[in-house]
Amino acid sequence: MNPRVNMAESPVARQLSKTFGAISKTISASGLPRATQELVLIRASQINGCGFCVDMHTKDATAEGETAQRLHLVAVWREATVYTDAERAALELAEQGTRIADAAGGVPDEVWADAAKHYDEEQLSGLVTLIAMINAANRMQVMTQQPAGGYVVGQFG
């Protein structure tokens, strides 16, 4: 696969990468657990078919100590016993937020209520922003056909 745009050489893309980095720091400051963030980033990227982002976030999660078992089971998290109730609530919110166009009325109240049982308002704000951000990043990478497999942990600072 050849990318349609060389995102590494585009000044606009480099600036967007810095902006995404600043947003990521703000999300981390919300207190949302880092492991939860990576699981959500991976699941939304799987749903959206973004190989570049799945590659990046599985490598980042591995570098942060996430287990191979948990990474391999993200796509089937409902059947897996390796996630906490809080992580399950975050994954469900990520799926509903990613597939928002598929459901009239958006995210169901019960999905929001479940997430709210596990996360405070700051963490929920971070989680919602994380879901929105990864969906935007997925769409950018998929539209420009960025190839998967070459990401190196930390390459974006």
TrEMBL record:
<protein>
    <submittedName>
        <fullName>Carboxymuconolactone decarboxylase family protein</fullName>
    </submittedName>
</protein>
<dbReference type="GO" id="GO:0051920">
    <property type="term" value="F:peroxiredoxin activity"/>
</dbReference>
<dbReference type="InterPro" id="IPR003779">
    <property type="entry name" value="CMD-like"/>
</dbReference>
<dbReference type="Pfam" id="PF02627">
    <property type="entry name" value="CMD"/>
</dbReference>
<dbReference type="InterPro" id="IPR029032">
    <property type="entry name" value="AhpD-like"/>
</dbReference>
<dbReference type="InterPro" id="IPR004675">
    <property type="entry name" value="AhpD_core"/>
</dbReference>
<feature type="domain" description="Carboxymuconolactone decarboxylase-like">
    <location>
        <begin position="25"/>
        <end position="95"/>
    </location>
</feature>
